[in-house]
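We were asked to recover a plausible sequence for a given structure. The inputs and outputs are reproduced exactly as logged, with field labels preserved.

PROBLEM: sequence recovery
POSITIONS: 82
GIVEN STRUCTURE:
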């Protein structure tokens, strides 16, 4: 399937997730340590992902969505609400 690009929604997921996580951490709802532990990520990986230095696997995206209490559809609907 060479030459096919991923749909925008697929490539937006980690970026949208990072934005939601940043808001949650900056808003004081949770610490980075607590969030990373609940999401099954190391704290350094979480920090690197939020800084754009590392990616996030699909499994980790699912884990982050679970911790946030969001479905993929709810996350993607936020993209249209910007």
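RECOVERED SEQUENCE:
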């Amino acid at each position: 399937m060479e030459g096919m690009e991923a749909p925008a929604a697929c490539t937006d997921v980690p970026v949208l997730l990072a934005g939601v996580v940043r808001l949650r951490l900056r808003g004081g709802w949770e610490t980075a340590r607590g969030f990373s532990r609940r999401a099954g990520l190391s704290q350094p990986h979480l920090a690197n992902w939020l800084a754009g230095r590392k990616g996030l696997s699909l499994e980790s995206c699912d884990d982050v969505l679970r911790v946030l209490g969001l479905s993929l559809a709810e996350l993607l609907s936020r993209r249209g609400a910007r």
